[in-house]
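Residues determine shape. We examine one folded chain.
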Amino acid sequence: MSIVIGGMIGLGKTSVADLLKGHFQHKGIESKVFYESVDDNPILPLYYELTPEELDAKRIPFLLQLFFLNKRFKTVKDCINWENPIYTIQDRSIYEDWYFAYVNKNLGRISELEFKIYEDLVDNMLEELNELPKKAPDLMVYLKGSFETVIDRIMSRGRSFEINPELKEYYFEVWKGYDEWVTNHYNASEVLIIDMDHTDVVQNPQDAKRVCLEVEEKLNDILFISKAHIG
């Protein structure tokens, strides 16, 4: 089965992905995590550090969205072709990339023409994936949190290119529409919402255990429904 971990920047997608991998392995279930490209991303620091004028001149937001889209497309194909694990876990999904591009378009960081090119490319990629088995995830684990929690978590993990105070407006623009997009526009899979305002899977073992059980129960429900349809 395929799981994607979605949610706002800083809320702990990688930590939850690692947690689930450890949980499944402890139960003897092989799994693999496909991480988001951050440390090996040459464009991401520029996106956060350059002035608006420099971003516009170099078209960095558009390049960044293309970079992520390409990496995410490869990840989906890798998940499909991976033969050993029973579970694959993706750190953010290809579907969320569109939302980030949409926000950047609304902010004027991506032009209408660039967004049209981006959407055409997404449509072509998803059309190709539609020809492959199991192209969509079985479950999105969506990490939901208040804006205060988002900012606290971003600051606490200490990535230098993320903690510029001027980025707060950008984070807010992404955050304010994320829940609505997941609720009303994302339809690729079932969704399990985890309230990160009251969840800390790193510091609180009880929270970690609860999240693993909630994910496992949701996956079991999905499997039951799938078998019922087949039967």
Remarks:
- Residues 2-230 form a domain with the Rossmann fold fold (CATH 3.40.50.300).
